[in-house]
Please model this.
Amino acid sequence: MFLRNERDIWDQLRRQKGLLADAQGLLSARSAEVEDLRLRCADIQAELATAKEQSAPLVAKIKELEEERDSFRLWAQEATASAKVTAGQLGAEQSEHQATKVALAEATKAAEASRVEVSAWKSKAEGKFR
Model:
């Protein structure tokens, strides 16, 4: 019985040794995968740093262009407001010009009528003194 138990223990020990070897093989494979992932991570971090470095001037240029766009937008708003004011003034000036034109036409008619009347009075007056 003792020998049988000893044999069972040795058999169990061999199985445990086999399981341990399998576990060590899996652990070794996992360790290699972890190392590969760590190296990939380091590569990606280096690529990220390079990309950030390369994109920094582009980001600065984009910000500059956005500021320029905002400046142009403000200028356009001011120009639009100024144009509206000028259009309003032009409309008022055109109305005033039209009123002046009508008044001038009436004054011209009145002046022509007065000239005709003066001419008639002059003729009448010359006829009396001749």
